[in-house]
Amino acid sequence: VQLQASGGGSVQAGESLRLSCTASGSTFGRLAVAWYRQAPGEQRKSVACINFRGTTNYAHSVKGRFTISRDNAKNTMYLLMNSLKPEDTDIYFCNLGPSCVGSDVSRRLGSWGQGTQVTVSS
To answer: What is the pLDDT of residues 14-49, one digit of tens each?
Structure first.
């Protein structure tokens, strides 16, 4: 499954961004989808996951600030990021899998793509 993340940018602390990720194929609506973040030289970390029923899970660092959602008709998932902090600066990626395990998927089925850069300045 090919994935294309977009919507990143440079913002000030406290501002908001909405990321989008569009997937190829016809199985999107039956899968869980998740967002990830990665800083240079560090491991990729899961941020949020939403299953096919719409149940969501978030990493502790973003709970209450970020909202994950999906539009199955458009094969697209979103990450609304409010109250952004400088430590949210990362490259953000998306992936999908059979189910959510916390803020990750149980098995990643998609290709990572290039991600989208989010830069938050203080």
So the answer is: 999 999 999 998 889 999 999 999 999 999 999 999
**Rounded Cα distance, 52 and 71, in Å:** 10
Q: Please compute, for residue 39, the number of CA atoms within 13 A of its CA located in the half-sphere on the CB side.
A: 7
Those residues whose C-beta lies under 8 Å from the C-beta of residue 41, and which sit 6 or more positions away, are: none
Asked if 10 contacts 89 with a C-beta cutoff of 8 angstroms, the reply is no
Output the DSSP codes for the chain: --EEEE--EEEETT--EEEEEEE-SS-GGGSEEEEEEE-TTS--EEEEEE-TT--EEE-TTTTTTEEEEEEGGGTEEEEEE-S--GGG-EEEEEEEESSEETTEESS--S-----EEEEEE-
Show the tokens assigned to 88.
């949210």
- Give 67-113 pLDDT, tens digit per residue: 999 999 999 999 999 999 999 999 999 999 999 999 999 999 999 98
